[in-house]
């Protein structure tokens, strides 16, 4: 009887683990446009806002405060006053007014909605992709043959990349800020799920084709978070990889397996649940349980297991406080591959350019001057010590 009971428990436990692992696999690949409004808003005027004090709201720099599930949007600037519980900050711009009597919102590293918010001219272009067209912002520069292509991260949108546009404008680059499948601007993949860059890269490859067709001879990729996976695929698989002159990686995901395991642990999931979920995503037989049209090869998404040959110069901007993409992986990869790593103090994932924009811009200028001088129409005097 004890053996029978133990066997029954084992069956129940196995079924529970399987269900939890499938749920993780489905959640990890889900395309969601909703963020919960959980940040308490104490008071708000057109000039200032008072919100709950958190590491993010206390950090220096420029941010966004969204309200009403994104219906309201304001750009937030300098700190004015703090208490142990709250922070008062300047409201720099109101893009969309907050709903009446709003009590909660969410804080974001985004600072700008369009290039016009940076006083930069731009042209809306449509990049032909397999399932239709993907919108992009084309920002003219003084150089017609040197381009920077900006690639946002998982679940983000192209506006995220606007924070890094000004320094490349200063360097004279023509710029393309792209969208790709899964970001609610470009057409989704056929299964309407995220593929962690393993298929999304083809939309950015189409953007490279557009750039080359319009005069680009050297291209710098400025890739955020999952954008690093897309950059890796371009280095290995693009017909235009010969024009890739350099890569700037911000808060990069360099290996999805340890990254997702770490995120699962942070969410309170046992490691074996996360690992089983990853096995489902990579299984030829089980991937459909997660809603995927095909299995995902995570080994080909790792900068460690399949590094491409002939790497261009690479600069990594990453915060040690990043709880989403492990900083330790950036340290390890940079040391093993002679890449330039800039440790940037910021409160979380992809907030480097929000909290320390000046430091990030100086790092890019220095790197371009030292490693890619022919990609700048104007060399900037910077400290190189």
Can you walk through the features of this model?
The protein is globular. The strands form two sheets. Strands 7-8-10-9-11-12-13-14 form an eight-stranded mixed β-sheet, with helices on both faces. It folds into two domains: 39-108, Beta Barrel (Elongation Factor Tu (Ef-tu), domain 3), CATH 2.40.30; 115-255 and 302-375, Rossmann fold (3-Layer(aba) Sandwich), CATH 3.40.50.1820. Mean pLDDT is 92; it is low at 1-12 and 378-385. Strand 11, helix 4 and strand 12 form a beta-alpha-beta unit. It has helices at residues 2-29, 165-170, 201-213, 227-237, 256-266, 271-281, 327-337, 352-355, 357-371, and strands spanning 39-44, 48-52, 63-67, 72-82, 86-96, 104-108, 123-129, 132-139, 146-151, 174-178, 218-224, 244-250, 314-318, 340-343. Helix 1 crosses helix 6 and helix 5 packs across helix 6. The chain is an alpha/beta fold.
Keywords:
single chain, 385 residues, alpha/beta, Elongation Factor Tu (Ef-tu), domain 3, Rossmann fold, 2 domains, 8-stranded mixed β-sheet, 6-stranded antiparallel beta barrel, 9 helices, globular, disordered C terminus
Task: Briefly characterize the structure.
With 385 residues, the chain is an alpha/beta fold. It has helices spanning 2-29, 165-170, 201-213, 227-237, 256-266, 271-281, 327-337, 352-355, 357-371; strands at residues 39-44, 48-52, 63-67, 72-82, 86-96, 104-108, 123-129, 132-139, 146-151, 174-178, 218-224, 244-250, 314-318, 340-343. Strand 4 and strand 5 form a beta hairpin.
